[in-house]
Design brief:
heterodimer, A: about 325 residues, 2 domains, ten-stranded mixed β-sheet, 9 helices, about 55% helix, rod-shaped, B: about 600 residues, alpha+beta, Barwin-like endoglucanases, Immunoglobulin-like
Amino acid sequence: MSLAVIIMSIAARGELKVKYLVLIASIFLAVVVGLKGMTEAYVHDVMAIVELYSRPSLAISSQRPAGVKAVKVNVVHITIENIDALLISVSNVSVYLDLHRARLKGSLPGFGEALVGSKLRDQIGLPIAYINGLKLNITGIISSNDYLDYSLIILDETAALLDLEWKTLYEWEVRESSEPIPHAMIVPAIPTLLISVIISAERNVRLITNLIYAMACMAGFFLAGSSSVEARRTIRVLTSAGFTFKGLLFSFMTLSIVLAALSTIIGVSLGILAPTLISAITSIFLKLPYIRPMAYESMYLDILWYFILLFICFFTGFVRGLTDVISRD
Amino acid sequence: MSFLGIKMLWPKKLILALLSLIMAHTLVALFSAVSSAYWMVINTALSGSDGVIVMQAGARTVFTSHVPLSVYESLKRHPDVVACEPFTLTPTCIGEKTVIVRGATIKYLNSWSRKVVSGYIPKRGGLWAVVGVKAADRLGLKTGDHIIIASSRTDALMPVEIKAICMFRDSKDYEVLVPLDVGQKIAGLPDTMVSIVEVKGMEKSKLMKLLTSDFELTIGCNIDVEGWILVFDPLNMLVASAVINNSSVLKFLLPFGYYEIYYQGRNIFTKLVDVLLDSNKTVFINLSLKANSILQVMASKNDVVILRDENGTLVKRTWQDGCWVFAVKPGLYILQINNSTYQVPVLGDTVFNPMGFNAVGYEVLVTVVSSDGTKVKDFIIVVEDEGGNIIFTSRALGSQISLRLPEGLYTFRIYKPPHFVFKHVNVKGPMSIVIKLPQLVKNPEKIPYRFYPKLISLKSEEAAEYTLYALTGLTSSYIVAAIVLILTLSVLLCLAVQRHVYLSISEDLRILHIIGFTKSRLLVSIGIPHIMLSISSALTGFAVAWAIYSILRLDVLIVMLGYGSPFRAVDSLIFTLLSTIISWLVSFAEALKRAGDTIEG
């Protein structure tokens, strides 16, 4: 009978205490798999919701988008009567207002004239506005659901009279078939927001996973070391029976592989089954949507990585305990 | 003798034990700090506020809650409420990073002026923002920067200028704060709605009862002309109406709120009374437009007191009880006392007692606007003291009038035919007030449809739980369970290390036991030095964990909806020491038992 088989039968009979070693290592992996599986399941569901969500309607960029008809908008932050507002210049006010679905009360501005946003008008309340000494006659009031409510809108020709640091932006309507344009900010920004939330959640999960790996490694190393120290009598008997140190090393290596594999299999099973069960119970008793934990894409990498780490930690732990026992003799 | 425990390990085992313990405790401290930070972040991110909050019952999160602003206007008038603030809370992206944008009143934002690290907080609204220090750090923002906030719910883009960076020393450090109206646009809310209302000073249960009950408002009317009784909420929205053509009693069933009761007749639209409906209440109103009213003028008998109506006709006067008395029909009168002339609107019995406050008191700037926000010009302002006596009247040709008044409670009445409205004002210092004239109701029998969301009050930690429960199907209890599971595993890690240390000296312990060391002596000689060793390694591990947390900047890396948490030193230290003591205790007890068992065996 080979030494490896002997060691394993010793472990199976409880002379080499590996029960807790396997259990604790399994629980660590179960937590990792459960956490990642549930997170992936939520991400999957969230992305499905994003798909169903209404399409974005407006995009803005500081760079002119290629292949899209965009409105060029010159913007500058100004202060009128201690109110922070925007001065906007466009070449075609009508097109610009249509893009923002703004309502106009009054008439479109001509040269030396301006439109005022309803919020700004509430606060300044003047039929005339002065910007850098330039008198602008207010020809209409705009109501909109965005920044136009706080803006003065003038024509590009009027803007040419003003020496201000204009910033040029491009705005356009996004259609369902539109290709995504880099650097563009799109509203409603729900897809961008959800992706950002998912990225930060995944980063958090990664951090926790790394901490769990580190803890599992330490626990595996010390528990394996303790197991071999506790089995000192058995080791002494084996060495007395003529088994070499090299042979013992090889057999502990085999045992480490078996234990790491066992821990990984139990851990993965537990990590999938436990959240499934919890999710099922909560969906039945608490009337919550059932979230099925997913066998996520990188699970095999986690399994492989965890198996290798456990094997190394178990083996080094066993070897440390073994050398401790042998050196005492 | 007391150092025997150390001597037994000296030197190789001691170094190894120390290193192992420090490593284990570093992991435990780091994990407990991260767990604690997560818990804090979840609570902060999903509750949105401190104290008791009012949110919509059906809303799944504080971010999707709709609370009428009238609830805030009503609650702030409640005597039990110490402080009350409306907020909009919207998760949004700046660049590609998530952050919560909080809309708050200008007054609230300015209350943080002392916490400004750079820049300043403007006194008026507009497209500007205040950023918390942590958010500024995370998003790379500084004062003077221009950013575009994209609404996650509507197609609203809001370019704002960063005016200040503040160190709030709470969760707002991770937020971007904007004026309430800007926040409403980003949240996709109408002007009359906010996300939540934060209430201080009132118990959650009492607030809950207030918000979920309907109360009966009984109006005892003594009015001698035909017209309409209209009930408005604080946002000047019509909520109830009834026609009246004589003295009668009207009953309305309304939710909690502050209501203003108006009379609308053929040529007059006047506010009669206001009421905070927080229980079943009865109010009585008197309005006599046909019968004569009494105008008493407080002046000496020697003063020249002349009263004329709008047509210039002289009104007969009598001297009674130390004042001049006039019996007049409701309307506007011109009163002359010696060389001073006053315009006095009379609508019911009135006492006129003019006082000159020009040199004393605080400046009060009164602006009158119409229901659509346009400024109203040419009106008469009447100021009454707490006793209801008119102390001042004046005609303002513009839309504003500046008065000087000593500290106290006053009633400001604005007469701008057909409007005759009033507002109670508590003058405590220089102030600016805006009086809004409600719009005449064309069809008083038609009550506009109003969105009355069912509201609930929650504590902030409950709000987080509520949100989690509804949003993800997980309650915060599950998260606690997950954290407890992982923390238990971290205690097991400490136990594994401690146990290994004692196993490595088990032979030595057995010998000590043989030569007569009792358990108590072993505790003193071995156990105490070892627990000291463990505690010192736990403290070192804790310090290392703190350093790792700070160096890796986990406070801005561990984020949920933009909220992070600094190193939770107390929580982490307590847990690390607790796990050290538990693992040492279990390991030492097991070691003693093993030593005894070996001898007996």
